[in-house]
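// run 5 | inverse folding | seed 20
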């Protein structure tokens, strides 16, 4: 049986407004690394995940790219602009993937960056 092509779509578009924090919770540090890097690393290390795409606010794109580079996250294949809501962000990510040369048997796993 052929294995499907698995894509992790990580939603990291939150603003941290409800926490009244300086930075959104996905960018807060735990053990010297952002929560987001811990999340990306879990998918990076999983042998059945082939690609990672991340949805975030435009102003955090540079930070995300830096985290991925420093963390050795080479499965990260794209950053997609976040929407106004979590649902809108998920939709933005799915629409982005639909416009790519994604294999027809691809499975997209949607994961919240802070879960």
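// decoded
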């Amino acid at each position: 049986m052929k294995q499907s092509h698995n894509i992790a779509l990580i939603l990291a578009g939150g603003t941290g407004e409800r926490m009244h924090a300086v930075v959104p919770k996905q960018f807060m540090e735990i053990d010297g690394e952002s929560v987001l890097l811990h999340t990306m690393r879990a998918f990076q290390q999983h042998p059945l995940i082939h690609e990672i795409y991340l949805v975030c606010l435009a102003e955090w794109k540079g930070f995300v790219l830096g985290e991925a580079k420093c963390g050795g996250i080479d499965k990260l294949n794209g950053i997609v602009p976040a929407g106004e809501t979590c649902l809108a962000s998920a939709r933005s990510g799915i629409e982005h993937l639909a416009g790519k040369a994604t294999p027809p048997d691809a499975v997209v796993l949607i994961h919240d960056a802070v879960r």
